[in-house]
Each structure stands twice: as C-alpha cells, then as structure tokens.
From TrEMBL:
Pfam families: EAL (PF00563), GGDEF (PF00990), PAS_3 (PF08447). Gene3D superfamilies: 2.10.70.100, 3.30.70.270, EAL domain, PAS domain. PANTHER family: BIOFILM ARCHITECTURE MAINTENANCE PROTEIN MBAA, DIGUANYLATE CYCLASE DGCP. Residues 394-527 form the GGDEF domain. Residues 536-787 form the EAL domain. This is EAL domain-containing protein. It comes from the Bacteria. It comes from Rhizobium terricola. Residues 215-287 form the PAS domain.
Amino acid sequence: MTFAGLLDGLERPTFQAIHVASLADAALPRSLEFAIGLDDTRRRHVIASIKPFRPTSNQALPYLLIQCTDIQPIRDSEASLVERERRWNHALVGSSSGVWDQRMDTGEMSYSDVWRSIRGLGPDDPIAGTTEEWLDMVHPDDRSRVLHSIERQNAGDPEYTTFEYRERHKKGHWIWIECRGACVEWDDEGQPVRIVGTDTDITERKAAEEALARMSRRLKLALDASGIGVFEADFSTGMCEWDSGMRAIYGLDTDPLIRINGEWEDMLHPDDAERVQTKVNRHVEQLIPFSDEYRVVLKDGSTHYIRSRTLPFIDGDGHRKMVGANWDITADLELRKELERAKTLAEARNRDLEQAKARIEHIALHDHLTDLPNRRYLDEMLESLDGEGRADKGGLAILHIDLDRFKQINDTLGHNAGDAMLRHVARILRDNVRGGDFVARIGGDEFVFVARFDGNQRMLTALAERLISELRKPVAYDGQDCRFGASIGIACDRTGTVAPRQLLLNADIALYNAKNSGRSRYAFFSRDSHSRMVDSKRIADDILRGLEQNEFLPFYQFQFDARTLDVSGAETLARWRHPEHGILTPDKFLAVAEDIGVVGEIDGLILERALADMTRWEKLGLSIPKISVNVSSRRLHDPSLKKKLSALDFDPGTVSFELLESIFLDDNDDQAIDNLRHLKKMGIDLEIDDFGTGHASIVSLLRLSPKTLKIDRELVQTVPGSRARRNLVGSIIDIGHSLGIRVVAEGVETPDHVRVLRGLGCDVLQGFGLAVPMPFEDTVTFLRDESWRSCALSA
C-alpha cells in the first residue's frame, strides 16, 4: 500500500499537491502533520519529513523519501488539556464565578464575562486601570481590610485565600463579593508574578445571613424577655441539652447536658410526676406534639408551676428526640388568681353599680313621694309613642288632672297632710290603671293619665267621673277629714295622627276650661276652647306689651254727698287704651291679667296715676276730697305691698282701698291681715265693695272695721218701686250707721234713686245718673259745669 493510501481522505489532496510540486522541482515543506488511518475507526497523527530523490539514470522517475514520527501521544495530551479547559470554563460559568488573571511583571489584567456581569459591566465598559481607581469602587468601611487581605493573599498566606468585601455596582447599589485567589507563578527571587482567582456575587447569601442574624437576635430577645427555656432531648444517647433559660427556670448552674431520668425527673412534684412522665413517654413513642402544665420543687424548696410545649421527632441519624420549651408560669397563675379575685369583686361591684344605676334611673324617672312616674318619664314615654308609628297602634287619650282646694290642706294641716293626700291620689289612680295605661305625677298637685283609646268617649267620661267621685271623698288624717276635689281636662285622638305632646297640650287647655267652669268637673278638648285659649294668649301678650307701653290709665266715677250733692270723692277704675280696639273695660282683660299674675301691677300703676291726677286737680283749684281704688286678692297678699305703698306720696284720709267681700272673706290669711293693718296705719281707708251679695257677715265687719260700705247696684236698682227692697237697703244703711260706717249706694241712675236713698239716710251716691266713668281730661269740664246737680232739682 502506498503512503497516500494510508492517509485520511481529507488529507490526500494535500499530499498529492506536494507530490506534483516535487516533480516540478518546486520548493517543498520540510515536514507536515498527517493523520494515518489504521482502520475504519482509528487514526494516528504523525509528522512526515519529505525529501525528493532523483535517480542517476535519466530514464528513471524522481520519487519522495518520507520519514514519519508518531506524535499521537502529544495530540492525545493536547486534546485532554483542551477538554479539561472546556470543563473548567463550563464549571466557572455554571458557578456564576468570574475569573480574573493578574500578571505582576507586565501589569496585564484579564477578566471573564461573568466577572463583568457580576458588576453590571458589558464587554465594552471600561475597567479601573489602577488599584486606587478600583478602591474607589470598594465600600469605605471595607477598603483597609481589602488592601490587607490582598497583600496577604499575594504573599501566599493561606488564611487570606478567600475574603469578602462590598463593591459598588454599575447601577449604584452595593454588592457583596467573595474573592478567591492564589499565586500561580513566582520569579527567581520568590516574588509573585501571576495571581489567578475568582469573584462570586454573594449578595443574596449575605442578605440571607443578615436576615438569619436578625431573626436569631429577635428570637434571643424574645426568649430572654419571655423567660422561656429551650431544651433538646436525645433518647438514643440518654442526654438532654438545656439552654441558659432552662437552667435559670430550674435554678441550676450546672453543665448544659442533663441526664434523662435524672435531675428533671427528680424535681417533679410527687403529685404530678407519674402523670407527667407517662404523658411524655406516650407522646414521644407516638411522635405526637403535646403540651402540659406541672409543678416542680426546686433546690430551695419552693414550688413552681411550669408550662411545657414539646415536639417529638426522629433525626437524620435515626435518633428519637424531643425538642421543647418551658416557662415558669408561677407568677402568671398568682396573677390569674388575683385577677379572678379582682374579677369576682368587680362583678360584685358591677352588680351593685347596676342596682344603684337602676335605683338612680328609677329615682330620676319617678316621683319620690308617690313613686309614680314623673314629668321626665312622661316626656320619654310620649316621645316613644310618637316614634311608634301611632297610625298603626290605635288611638290615645290623655287626662290632665289637677286637684282642687289642695292648697287649703297644706295651709291648714301642714305639708305632711298634703303629702298623705298626694299618696292617696296616687293609689286611686293606680287602682284605675288598665293594661297599657300610664299615670304620672308631673307637678305639685297635677297628674297625667295616659290611656289607649278606641273611639269610645263614654269610657273616658266614665273614667273621669269615677276619678272625680273617688277624689271627692273625705280622707281621714290625724283625726280630721280632709276634703278636696279634682278637675280633669281630656284630649283624645282615635286616628293616631295627633302627636302625643300635642294631645298633652290639648288636655291642658281642656283642664283650664274645666277649672273656669266651676272646678271638680271634667271637660273635653274642643277647637272652640283652643281658640279661646289662643285668644287668651294673644290678650296676655297684648297686656304685657300694654304695661310696657303705659297703655293702662285710670277713669274716674265721681261720688256725691246724698244731701248736698257736693263731690265727696271718686272711684278710680282701670281702663286699657288698646291701640286697635280702643278703650277696654276690665271685663275684657281682668281674667287674663289674673291668670298671668299682673293684676297687682295694674292696680299699682292705676294708683300712681290717680295720685298724680289729684295733684293736677289741686293745681287747677278743683277739690276732690279722696279717691278709692280697687285692690285685687293677689295685691292684698303681696309681701312687698308695704314697701311699694311707702314709696308713694299722699295725705292720710285721701285714699281708700275697695275690697270685694269675697276676696276678704275667702282668701283671708296672715299676710292679708298684716297688709290690712299696715294700710290703716298709713291712713288708707278700707271699703267693702258689692256689699249685700251674700258673703259678708256682721262679725267680719266688726273684725275688719271698714270706713265705708258700698251697697251692690243690684239691690239699689229696684229701690224706687219695691217696698221690700227699700226696707232691705234701709236695714243695711242702719247696720252701717250703727257700726259707725259710712254707706255708699251704687247704681244711682234716676232722680227717684236720689230721692229714695236720701230719704233712707244713705251718705253717698254713685251711679250713671250722676256721673259716668271718664278720663282725667273730661273731669275738669264736668266738675266746673256741675251738671249732675240737675238730678237733685228733679228729685
């Protein structure tokens, strides 16, 4: 076989070209590398030295001398080296480590692509050219340490083969680098010439280590703060490892290794030992987590309560183990007991407070005397009824009850008697309460009865009549019979459309009408009564405004001597100059003024203006011997009356107060008697007005000793035509004279009245036939003209 036949098919053309060139005497290479095929699968590399050879005979053809040297071992070694290098490169890439190579003699530096990517650098990004430039990229806290580590690493110190530091990433943040390096070449003097190493990004590992460190610190702090001790028992070795917390709990300062079935078991309380050890053995055998509480007796003899949480397991070596935590709960149990005692005490106190609260609420919502609901309770109840949607709940009725003549019981028998009567009223009202009804005391002697209403007013009438009848019956107290009555105002609504508070207001209006109708009776609310109430309210407002605007003024009706018809005095009458209705007489406003309590103020104003008019008459040369003014019951009982009269300027005997018999005889009390005595001391005469209406008595006249009696006009009007009436009037005049009392006849309207009364011995005449009431402006002309004397001539 020829040499060409041994060659690999790919290399034969090369050999043939060399052969051709040799025939042409061209220059040939000294040696070439060929692959010779030994068989179909094996090849062997050789180096062939080729030399052309020409024979001496011109007929012979030139040929080639070929000398082959086997270099297959060298190629195998090179291939192995390439494969190892390839594997090394793959390993470095797989490990994410960047390779660096530094030559100290030439200053050359080479870095792998991974080394660059760790720092965020691309293939074309510049790299620090000097150590100083590179150090600027190292974290300031690491620079001195890094320089020292590099120095020791270059010196071949095995302790510094690996070191860690922080370097700034291209994006600006810090990354942790683990640098591994070693000197691989030295010069003749033993100085490092080449250093090769790897850099690995360990930022995530450092973060994990820091997180683990933080967790460990927190766990240690938690264990220290909580006083928990941790242990791990190995039942295969029979030893248990206790941390410092466990040893502190059990009062031990020994080695952390504790024998199983040793110290711990000896400290178990005798009453707990068997139970606890049985439980431990069972759960460890079954590998079931468990918890327990038990007592231990420490070396100092003290008993402590321990709580344990335990987890049995088998480790990788097949050892049966148990890890757990213990903590001393003695103080917790003591605290729990104390808290339980405090809780028990607090619950008892809360019960007391709830009871006290209930009592306070009851007191706040009930009248202390009768234990009936009070006004506040009533308001809340009415509010709740208003919120129920009463259109669906049916009708409602309210009875406003006010006791009559109750004040007299308090005044005569004392407040204890009055309280007893109020409790009696409360019992009667309770006895008449049906299911769903409600009764409350809302004031001194006022009560409210709230009842469901189905539209049957007869039921309400029967209830009102029954209550009035029961309350009218005498009540025995301290050996005496107490009598009083009740007036009731009723308001009802069957449709459920009227607000409960409005119903209460309507019942109050009805009560006002019942009292004005004579007391001890009932009245239903009506629109007419409401209109009258509204009118009264308007009049009351006008009265108050009129007092502020000085609209009240005196009118005068002169009185005359029965024999001479000379003026003997003037009765002062109150009038109201209303801006819309003109001059109003007392019958238009007196009742309302009495209700709002300003009659005394009106009386005082009229007296002051009358005294001023007397001064004006005197200046005009007109002689009016005296004036008389009406005095209301409220003014007669005014404690400040003395002070008010003392501020006035008048001569004794020039002023007299007219008292209705009914006022004096019905409302007599200590305050009124004291005021009447003071009037006499001031020189103010007293007159009994409307005498003969049936209230007066001879005894009361003797006790009062008035200066004047005024015979009521109803007795005087028929005197001229009735002998019986003349005899009656004559008897009154005789009685007055026998007591030294001057007699005035009212209602003198005709000359016959003048003639008959003069004949009966009457002292003074007063009536429309002589003079009508007139304002001051008209009195001057009237007094100067003396037109009244024509009556005497006619007589």
